[in-house]
Each structure stands twice: as structure tokens, then as C-alpha cells.
């Protein structure tokens, strides 16, 4: 038998009809996640054709992108940014009711950002194909899934047939060897990978992350790494399931329980790439050289170790990016005064992320003039964090503690960064205006974001960690 | 029922936006994604490049041209990266574009374009340079022959994934194509333990 990669094993198990020169493969989809923003036009298409959702049992919906993160008023009215945002939420509520879909709405204990709740509830399971009308669907690849974002037309295809017409991508293995230095996190690994590959270096590839550094990351860290695959142009990134994956998923609501779980787990462990599996491209990164990272430009690949300062531009694109950010090549990051800090999103809105941020904020204050917003990724994260008292640490430090949602990651719900303001954000995109018209974004880990909130400028988190050890 | 009219060949002047890495947040900022329809997004295409915060026009080429005269958008290197929002091609098409040319076009954006009849054309750096050097020119795009003809007579062939091309040329409906496979999909579910 020929050696197969993780990607090939999962792909092959889902081919309903193989691809040919003139036609794509018909690929079966195990799990379809739906949210309010990219689905209304797909449901309209189904309605226009008189079709029903074919597999409501494999389709789950949540509210996350356009919902307010502020509490409702005494009458239960939610502070939507516009009437249209409210209508969009009501449209999904109506579509879910018509088609018999499970919607994690305001009354559900599991509502949250789509890529946070999928794994949390065990909807995401190793070996699955997972799609959603959202490009960060790659997050679910941390569990050994082929998981990728699709457009609204394709959302309609999956609703109607549970399948997609797809061409098989090429494969690339990214091996991160060695051991991370203290204070370096999954986000720093991801930003290093993107800086190495470049903005479009992953275009056309399915990525597999491997190596000791990836093995050593906790599941949250692995999700952060897979989440950012799209920022190098790759639609999906995966990590082979191991004992950590199995321990993390055990007992979650939608996974098999008891003996059936152990049986399933055996199959999951067998998904790892075979010895001798061939990849179209291989890349190696020495993990021991990675340091806390921050972006300095307007695309996620424009990042560097904080201690190295802002690089000097060596082409027009970089010059334009520096000009937009108001940074000067060669300057230390400490001169970059911060206006807003955002901790949250499907990249870094999980318990491990909030704990890392709280560890730095504990007993400290957000610097004067800085607005810090902490937005848990899901209701479950919010309740867990409140049980641990993390919310009190944030509130005592002077940060805001919100209800779950995408919030300032995409800035379409009324949470946004004002024109010209500089934000250190744990989200995934620093495009011009991503967090509001004229906003400037520095992407970094939760620890770095918290350190920057406290310092009032872009800061290496290790200085605060060292203080604690002393 | 099909998603779009068949496309064969058309000529138009180009419109050049030379910035590299034009992402989907530039094409249509997220705060316009609360819509529940596909129509009317052309007026917010490149919104933050075209309008100030109070809604008045900025001096930008997109506010000055007649969109019916410029149906081919030539973007800087690497176009359409970022989110999966199909609102990006909807906005570009509603503005009046029928094709997008760049040296590289991001995966999900490309797939979304093809599903709506906005033709993504990837060209070499040489050809791209020629387009940028003469931003007033007329080009002809012939999908039947996969050919792009520049004003100086240069003819190059471009690639479009075979199935997507057939969908565009013949008005084949991808959803309908999948629906025809339902019996096989059901068999697959039975044999792979995925039945409801
Ligand atoms: S948190 Fe940001 S990236 Fe994640 S699903 Fe929401 S908008 Fe998309």
C-alpha cells in the first residue's frame, strides 16, 4: 500500500465521485456550520428552487458576526448596530425554524463564535470534512479535519446536497522543530509561519503542521495555528490527532460516549500521515528561534519579532503599509502608542487565551487612555472564565468584559476602532480598515495584547512575565 | 434554472487599481455585510476608497469613470485575498465589472467569482506590466478560446478550471449538477455509515 498523508486519508474517505479532467470531485461534507452573515442568500436560493435542507442533522447554526456584545436593556432589547443587523439575525432564526436546523441562538448555553463552539461541543471530530461560509473554518483542522471556508453559493450547495464540487489541492507539510522559548505561544508560531510563507505562499495547498513544537502545543494553540492558515492563502491546515486531541474531546456533548469513544479514538489515531508520505512541498522552521511576534504592516505576513523593531521597507508594498500604519522603519515597537486592545475572536478567544491575558493583567491596570475589550469566544468560555474569576481580573484592570461574538475582529456589530487609532488585536487580519474605517491594527498573541494594554504601547510580554518570577 | 447568462467574448476598456494585495475588506467593508440580498452592492464597492466618513465622494477613479465603459478590473499583484464573503464579487459585478485580471487571485475569491460569472484572469508579470503601463487600453476577453487580447495585439491564453469554464460558457448550473448526483450521494451515505 502506498504511504498516504493525513490530508489524503481524509479526502479519499469523502469522495462520492472522483474528479476528472473536465469535472471536479463530488466531496461529501460531514459538518456544515452556518452563521447569519453568509447564509441568507443561500437559503433564498433553496427557497427559489423549492428545496429543503437535505441533512439538518449535519447542519448547525449560530449567531456571532453581527450581534451586539453588550447586554440587552431592562426590556430585553438588544443594542443592534443597525436595523439591518437585527433583520439579518431574525432571517437566520426564521430560516433555521423553516428548515428544522439546530440554531445556537440567544437562549442557547452554547452560543458563540462558530469556530469556537464547533470543537467545544464536539461537533468537530477527527477525520471529518467541515465547511462554513467563513474563511477561518481552517481552525477545525487542528482536530485532523479537512476544514475550509466556502462562499454563499457553496453554502447553498451543501445545504441542498451535503456535497461540494471540489478540486483536490496540493499538499504542503510545515514542520516546526525544536522547543519554544518561555513566553512564546501558538499565535507567535502562526505569525512566524505566515511571515515565512508570505501572503499567498499557501495558495492552492492544504497544509499539514508537524514537528515537536506543534505536538507540544495545547489544543487551543493548535487551533490558533490552523485558524491562520488562510492568511498565507491556504484554504485548510491540519494537524494529526494524538492522545491530546482524544483527551480534549472526550465527554463533549456530540462525540460518542463510553466504549464507543475509545473505539472511535483508535480510528482517529490511525489518521496520521504514514511514514514516507509524499508532499508537494515541505518547509522546516526552527521553533527555538521564534520570539513574541507583532505585525507592523497591513497584511498578516508583515510581522516580526517585537524585539527586532519595525523593519526597514525594501519594496513599495512595504512602504505603503508602513505609511498607512504611521510607523518608521528601524524604530523600536515601544514607541507605538496603543489606543485600543482587543482580546477575543476565533483565533484567540478561548479559555487558554483568556488565562494568558489575565496572567499579565492580574494586579495591574490598563494604561491611561487605552480602551481594552475582552470578548469571550463563546458562552461556555464566558461562564468558565467567570467561574475562575478571570472577568474580575479584567474588570479590576480597567478592561471591558463583553458577551461572546466576533466583535472587533470584523467590526460589523458596532464594536470598532476609530479612524487613526492603533489597536493591538488577538484577531487574524490587519488589513486597512478591517477594524473600522481608518483603523490601524497590530496582530499579536493574547499575552502580547495584555502586555501592550498595561504598558500603553506595543510591548514584549516577557518583561511582565520576568517581573513575576523575580 | 442557472446562476447566470452564458459568457463568450467581450471587449472593454480596463480600469487599473495598481495597489498590491487588494483584499476583500477593501472590495466591500464588513459593515456592509448585514444585507440579506445580493443586489445593490455596487454602490459600496471599495466604499472606504471612494467616500469619506460623512458619505461625500473622495477624488477616486471609481467615482469618475463610467462603469459601463470599464468592465475589466486590473488589480495589483495578488487580488482578492481575505474573507470568503461572496459579497465581494456581487459588489464588483453590481458596479459593472465582468472580469478581474491580476498576477495572482486568491482561492476562495476566485471560486466565488466563477460561481457568479465574474471571470478571474491570471496573467504573467510581463502581461500585467503591459496592462499597467497603458491603463487606458481596450482588451478583448474570449472565454471560448481562453484568450486575452491586449490593445497592442498581444494575445495570451489564460486558464480557467474546466468545469467552471463549462458552467460559464453553457450556463450550466453547478447546483443542478450536484442535485443530479443525489442517488449516488445517498448510496455513499449508506455505504459509509453516514445515513441519517
Ligand atoms: S471571529 Fe473574526 S475571523 Fe472568526 S468567525 Fe468571527 S469574524 Fe470570522
From TrEMBL, chain A:
One of its GO terms (molecular function) is 3-isopropylmalate dehydratase activity. It catalyses: (2R,3S)-3-isopropylmalate = (2S)-2-isopropylmalate. It comes from the Bacteria. Its cofactor is [4Fe-4S] cluster. Residues 8-456 form the Aconitase/3-isopropylmalate dehydratase large subunit alpha/beta/alpha domain. Binds 1 [4Fe-4S] cluster per subunit. Heterodimer of LeuC and LeuD. This is 3-isopropylmalate dehydratase large subunit. It comes from Asticcacaulis biprosthecium C19. The gene is leuC.
TrEMBL record, chain B:
One of its GO terms (molecular function) is 3-isopropylmalate dehydratase activity. It comes from the Bacteria. SUPFAM superfamilies: LeuD/IlvD-like. Keywords: Amino-acid biosynthesis, Branched-chain amino acid biosynthesis, Leucine biosynthesis, Lyase. Its EC number is 4.2.1.33. This is 3-isopropylmalate dehydratase. One of its GO terms (cellular component) is 3-isopropylmalate dehydratase complex. Belongs to the LeuD family. LeuD type 1 subfamily. The lineage of its organism: Bacteria, Pseudomonadati, Pseudomonadota, Alphaproteobacteria, Caulobacterales. The keyword Amino-acid biosynthesis applies. Pathway: Amino-acid biosynthesis; L-leucine biosynthesis; L-leucine from 3-methyl-2-oxobutanoate: step 2/4. It comes from Asticcacaulis biprosthecium C19.
